Amino acid sequence: MSLIDRFLDRAIRRGQLTVTFPGGRTRTYGTPDPELGDVAIRFTDGRALRQLLADPSLGAAEAFMDGRLVIERGDIRDFLNLATANNRWEEGRGTLDASTLRRGIDSVRFRIDRINMARRSKRNVAHHYDLSDRLYDLFLDVDRQYSCAYFTDPSVPLEQAQLDKKAHIAAKLAIQPGMKVLDIGCGWGGMALYLHQMTGAEVCGITLSEEQLKVARRRAEMAGVDDKVRFELIDYRHLTGQFDRIVSVGMFEHVGPAHYRTFFRQCHRLLAPDGVMLLHTIGRAGGPGVTDAFTAKYIFPGGYIPALSEIARGHEGLRMFLTDVEVLRLHYAHTLAHWYDRVVAAKDAIIDLYDERFYRIWTYYLAGCEVSFRHGGLVNYQLQYARDRHALPITRDYMMETEDRLRAQPARPYPVSAAQTTV
């Protein structure tokens, strides 16, 4: 039995994967399972097989991107779902782990990349977030929320789930009218605008993306609230002032472990003595690791998903109370499923914007992330901090009461693109 046969026999047990190899040999692995279906793929050359064996994640990604791994039945999400459902994080099988040599190389690369100096941070952010606005409009919600939504039920539409996410976070912040709020990593401004609209707070959003900054400022100006909601192009390490509340959604993944202490120390410095902070980040369900080679190379250079233990080491000793911890398990899987479906529906438009290879990269990225939350070791953490033990009520009831009230209030949409100005 060949090495690839032994690998696939171990990797695929439930559901069926039919593989056509270079030269025409065909074999089916696994057993029928209606939940996982029947997927068929074809390798066009031997190099794709060697890459897959050395590093299943990066090897499959690059072979798919280059057209050397062809999906003949199902799609890339079906293929990745089948593979990861057979290797769930809870089971600890590690069948899809890279080879020992590959892991060693990745570890060295990660140690170099993790030194995420300020000058590299801006470049890394631009690599991903300064892509065409049109691309993001094709798959995100109308507020262009590019982070995990909050699904009160899996059947909830994406637009509502993103609104509910903002209400969920706003409730935890316990904002009062007139408070000063800092949004670290404000994206296109949706969270900052929502917080001002729903609570009356004055909000400062900061970003390292020049393209996001332009959009956020334009939105505030069009809404006539730019005197209350302002946006700045600045690294969090260089910001001065003091704020009653700090929120950061989907930015901590770009900080880098070497700078967690710096991040929390700066947040402590910026937070008022009775202030409250909410950190929303993708996290590892297990211990520290390394960024997978595909994500580091093609999607988020310099990015790293932290373990909860690493976050804790970042804030320990700074005299901040960790007042609430919530683990969102499947919410990002549901979010990514919506994004993936929208990207597939917009295939022709995305190819027109870029090319077929970019489309394949993007679908692999979204599908791979979805199955990582559905079967792998990724979750979302929402961590609430306070500098003073009396800053918040001593039970969580206020969160639910405020969230219910916010969700009952209709939020006015702020246009992101010119096409939305009549919304």
- What is the chain-wise order of helices and strands? HEEEHHEHHHHHEHEHEEHEHHEHHHEH
CATH homologous superfamily of the largest domain, by name?
Answer: Vaccinia Virus protein VP39
- Rg from alpha-carbon coordinates: 22 Å
Number of helices: 17
Overall structural class, as computed from helix and strand content, comes to alpha/beta
Query: Helix proportion of residues, in percent?
Result: 40-55%
Number of domains: 2
Report on this model:
It is a single chain. The protein is of the alpha/beta class. It has two domains: 3-97, Nonspecific Lipid-transfer Protein, Chain A (2-Layer Sandwich); 119-420, Vaccinia Virus protein VP39 (Rossmann fold, 3-Layer(aba) Sandwich). The chain is built from 17 helices and eleven strands. The chain has helices at 3-11, 46-54, 56-65, 76-85, 100-113, 118-129, 133-139, 158-173, 190-199, 210-223, 260-270, 293-299, 308-315, 331-345, 347-353, 356-374, 397-408; strands spanning 15-20, 26-31, 38-43, 69-73, 180-184, 202-207, 229-233, 243-249, 271-284, 321-328, 378-386. The protein has a seven-stranded mixed beta sheet. A four-stranded mixed beta sheet has the order 2-1-3-4. Strand 8 (243-249), helix 11 and strand 9 (271-284) form a beta-alpha-beta unit. The protein is globular, with a radius of gyration of 22 Å. The termini are far apart. The mean pLDDT is 90.
